[in-house]
Design brief:
By secondary structure, this protein is an alpha/beta fold. The protein has three domains: about 100 residues, Nucleotidyltransferase, domain 5, CATH 3.30.420.40; about 100 residues, no CATH class; about 130 residues, no CATH class. Helix content is about 50%, strand content about 10%. It contains 13 helices and seven strands. The radius of gyration is 26 Å and the shape is globular.
C-alpha cells in the first residue's frame, strides 16, 4: 500500500475527493481495488497535486464547489463524476471521518450504473444563483408582510388576506387608529413597509434579469412553447438540467422532480402512494403552479393536444391530484422539447411525452 510519502504512484482506477472548505482529502484505488493513495491537500494546491497523478476517474460528492472542481479536473484530463451524497453512504466503512468519506466516494465512482450529477456550466450556475437570490427575497418579503400583520393583530386590528389588501389599507389603518397605536409602533410598521417596498424592487429587478435571459436563450424559447411554461420555468429548467442529457427518458425527469407516485412493492405486488416529492423542490413547485394555472382556464383545454386527456381526467380526479398529474405531463413534455431541440406543437398528439 502506498502512502502520502510514496513518490511513485501506481496506475489509478479511481480517486475519491472529500471536499472541504480549505482542505481536500484524497483516497485512490488501483485497478485491483487496492488502496494506493491517501493524501490531504490544500484547496489552492488542487491543480498542482493532481497534475502529478495518473489520469483516472475522480469522484466527488455533489456539494458547494463540486462543479468548479469537476471543471478544473476535466481540463487536466481526468474523468470527474459528481455523485449524490445518498449514493456514497452505503460504501462508508467504520466511523465517519474525512478519509473514510473519500474512500467511499472512490468506491462509488467505480460503479458503472451509478447515476451521477451532470456537470453545470458557469452560465447555469449564474442562472441558478439568480433563482436562489430571488427565492430568498420572496421569502423575506413574505416574512415582512406577516410581521406587519402580527403587529397589527397585537393592536386588535385584523386585515383580510392578500398582500394587496394589506398594502391598500395599511396607511388608512395607521391614520384612523392613531389614537390606539403608539407612535413608536407606527414607526416600526412604517419601517417594515419601507423594507417591503425595497424587497419588491429587488424581486422585480431579479425577475427582469431572468426574463431577459430567457429571451436570449434558444432552449428557453422552445420551452415557452409548452402550455403553462413562461420565463421562470424555462430558465429554471435550463439552469437545473441544461439540455436534459442526464435523463434517458421523460419519465426519468418526472421521477427526478418527485412528481411520480411513491412506490413500495414486494412479492410482485405493486403498491403506489402519493407523489414522492424527491429532487428539485423549487422546479417541482413551478410545474405544479403552471398546472393550476391551466386548470383555471378550462375553455383553453381544447387548444392543447393533451386536451382530451385533461377533459377525461378532470371527471375522475380531485383537483389537487389532477394538478400533480398535469404537472408531471408538462414536465415530461418540456424534457422532450429540450432534449429534441424542437418547439412543442399543440396540434400533434405524438409530441406529448405520454
Amino acid at each position: 500500500m502506498a502512502t502520502a510519502s510514496t513518490h511513485t504512484i501506481p496506475v489509478l482506477a479511481s480517486v475519491g475527493i472529500d471536499i472541504g472548505k480549505d482542505v481536500f482529502h484524497l483516497v485512490g484505488f488501483d485497478r485491483d481495488g487496492r488502496l494506493v493513495l491517501r493524501r490531504k491537500i490544500r484547496r489552492l494546491a488542487l491543480v498542482k497535486e493532481f497534475a502529478k497523478l495518473p489520469r483516472c476517474i475522480v469522484g466527488m460528492e455533489a456539494c458547494l464547489s463540486a462543479h468548479f472542481v469537476s471543471r478544473t479536473l476535466r481540463k487536466l484530463g481526468f474523468e470527474p463524476r459528481i455523485i449524490p451524497a445518498k449514493y456514497t453512504r452505503p460504501f462508508v466503512k467504520g466511523q465517519k471521518n474525512d478519509y473514510n468519506d473519500a474512500e467511499s466516494i472512490a468506491e462509488a465512482a467505480l460503479r458503472p450504473n451509478l447515476r451521477v450529477v451532470t456537470e453545470k456550466t458557469q452560465d447555469q450556475l449564474d442562472l441558478q444563483a439568480l433563482y436562489r437570490v430571488r427565492s430568498r427575497l420572496v421569502s423575506r418579503r413574505t416574512a415582512t408582510i406577516n410581521q406587519i400583520r402580527a403587529f397589527l393583530i397585537e393592536q386588535g386590528i385584523a386585515v383580510r388576506k392578500g398582500a394587496q389588501a394589506l398594502r391598500n389599507s395599511l396607511f388608512a389603518i395607521l391614520e384612523n387608529r392613531a389614537d390606539e397605536i403608539s407612535a413608536r409602533m407606527i414607526d416600526i410598521i412604517v419601517g417594515l413597509y419601507e423594507d417591503w417596498l425595497w424587497l419588491d424592487e429587488r424581486i422585480e429587478s431579479t425577475s427582469n434579469e431572468i426574463e431577459r435571459i430567457s429571451r436570449g436563450e434558444a432552449n428557453c424559447q422552445r420551452l415557452m412553447s409548452v402550455p403553462g411554461i413562461g420565463p421562470m420555468i424555462s430558465t429554471a429548467m435550463v439552469a437545473a438540467i441544461g439540455t436534459g442529457e442526464a435523463f434517458e427518458w421523460s419519465r426519468d425527469f418526472g421521477a427526478w422532480l418527485g412528481l411520480v407516485p411513491r412506490q413500495y412493492s414486494t412479492g410482485g405486488k405493486p403498491v403506489l402512494g402519493r407523489i414522492s416529492k424527491r429532487g428539485n423542490r423549487y422546479l417541482r413547485t413551478l410545474f405544479v403552479q403552471a398546472a393550476h394555472d391551466i386548470l383555471m382556464r378550462p375553455h383553453n383545454w381544447e387548444k392543447f393536444s393533451f386536451g382530451p386527456w385533461l377533459q377525461e381526467a378532470s371527471q375522475r380526479m380531485h383537483k389537487n391530484k389532477l394538478a400533480a398529474a398535469l404537472a408531471n405531463k408538462l414536465a415530461r413534455i418540456a424534457w422532450s422539447v429540450l432534449r429534441n431541440g424542437k418547439a412543442f406543437d399543440a396540434n400533434r398528439i405524438e409530441v406529448t411525452a405520454v
